[in-house]
Amino acid sequence: MEVITLSMEESQAGQRLDKVLSSAIEGSRTQIQQWIKDGNVKVNESKAKGNYKVKVNDTIIIEIPEPEPLDVVPEEMDLDIYYEDEDVLVVNKPRGMVVHPAPGHVSGTLVNGLMAHCKDLSGINGVMRPGIVHRIDKDTSGLLMVAKNDLAHESLVSQLVAKTVTRRYKAIVHGEIAHENGTIDAPIGRDKKDRQSMTVTNENSRDAVTHFKVLERFKDFTFVECQLETGRTHQIRVHMKYIGFPLAGDPKYGPKKTLDIDGQALHAGILGFDHPRTGEYKEFEAPLPEEFSDLLDLLAKRS
């Protein structure tokens, strides 16, 4: 069971408890209201109702119950594995593949393929996300590290928290960025107007830092490399939109008139970490997928 503790700030005072929680954590308002009804939410160590108006310095503890077990079955897949030993596996996920199962979508994911490939995956994230330490979006291609036991999982998560994991992405963005590099330091939280989207906000947000450099400029587009210092949901997509250069093909954060591609032009090309058992630094690089390279060729011809 995951436990989250929140301390209410002045900007949240007077808001309904269920509304505050739906803005602060992942989960629908209906789901959060059910947690409150079931006694999984406490305010200052006491049970509260969803319509409770929070006060400054209220301490809210949310006990998120484990999801109902799903029938997640192994599926044989042709996985593009870059590295594997008794502790860690590094796999190159293709565009269009979901990382882990979710209610209503329990097949065809990377986890289904991993379960068929190896029987030993860490159990820290439960039956739906065995071995999964971090994620990339369905339409983002690239490298993921997978933990094959709990020792490895804890080590890799600690490295993510300490910001020592190397994660560099290639992306095509709208617009021509004039400067050669930059850093976007802007907190990200859930968009109150659209619960399925993230946005730059100071309310119920977490720090987020993205470094970028220009690799090549085209007419109306720029090819960039982004390095993550933090790993928030949709971070690169949200940050590039925030500075006025949204990702090409991004159906959620980009313009409607864009390149004719299926999803955002984003590839997690470089991944590096300290091996959980030996401490040796390991780094891996996956080349751009063919459809990404074809886009670059097309833009070069247009320019």
Automatic annotation (TrEMBL):
Domain annotation RNA-binding S4: ranges: 15-74
EC identifiers of the protein: 5.4.99.-
Keyword list, A-Z: Isomerase, RNA-binding
Keyword Ion transport: no
Cited InterPro entries: PsdUridine_synth_cat_dom_sf, PsdUridine_synth_RluA-like_CS, PsdUridine_synth_RluC/D, PsdUridine_synth_RsuA/RluA, RluA_PseudoU_synthase, S4_RNA-bd, S4_RNA-bd_sf
Pfam families the UniProt entry points to: PseudoU_synth_2, S4
Catalytic reactions of this protein: a uridine in RNA = a pseudouridine in RNA
EC class (word): isomerase
Role summary: Responsible for synthesis of pseudouridine from uracil.
Family note: Belongs to the pseudouridine synthase RluA family.
Protein name in UniProt: Pseudouridine synthase
Highest classification ranks of the organism: Bacteria, Bacillati, Bacillota, Bacilli, Bacillales
